[in-house]
Design a protein that fits this description.
The chain is of the alpha/beta class and 273 residues long. It is built from 9 helices and 10 strands. The strands form 2 sheets. It has a 7-stranded mixed beta sheet with strand order 6-5-4-7-8-10-9, sandwiched between helices. α1 runs antiparallel to α4, α2 runs antiparallel to α5 (127-134) and α4 (100-112) packs across α5 (127-134).
Length: 273
Amino acid sequence: MIETISKNLVNLKQEFRRVYCGTSHVQEIMPLNESDDFPIPQNDLDSLHIFLQNNSIYYDKFETKIKDVNCMIYEGDINKYWLNSIGHESSTQPFSPTWMLTAYIIASMAKILNYKEVLDIGSGDGRIAYCGKILGLNVYGIEIDSMLVDLQNHISKKTVINFNPICSDAVKFDYDSLKLSEPAFFIGGLPQMGGDVLASNIISNLNNNLKEKSCMVLTGSYSEKYSINDTRDGGWKKLIDDNNLKVIQSNSLPTAWSFNQTNETPYIFTKFS
């Protein structure tokens, strides 16, 4: 099912990219109904729309049909959150969201791989943690920026879904305090923009017992702007080798920052070997 949804989302995004005539800062597309192309339980789809409808980064929405799929288009502006997020000394990347359905897919992948908790590191507006919650996982969103945590708390209150936003520097956070069993750490930062430093510091703070049970989900890029960098494994090859990580699965999916690109954003699932 995940493979079908992923392939069809990428195709939908590329067609949406071709026909979209709007001028909004960020935009994304969400199917409205469960279908053969998007075999997602209707209750889960509705929950994804509820998140977007209660998220203040979006100021407009409209229905349309793309590739015979009934969709809702959400348009928004993240400038104030983007600017605020880069003001923190240890921030590795400005806020820019994944797409909502991408967040659902990667949280689903963690569940399929039998991980019990989702830790969204650099959680932004909290959408990965939110998706993990509606999928029945234990979730935590670690975000250094208080404005974004306020946004998460607002969404949590409006949706009546608590996805545990925590305002903290992820590098200094005590992960042992969460009593984790089998966690998937989603690292919110490209390696070419400091995400490798964030991931390295988090890995160094995990005890060996927790490492053995953990999955590190690394957000990469194959964009031509990073062509001078090592783009193997989306830019994560060195960190993977240095920390004895093994790639167990990967998936390339749409994000706000890759909207105008023909390549999607790779999410690379790894575990310690």
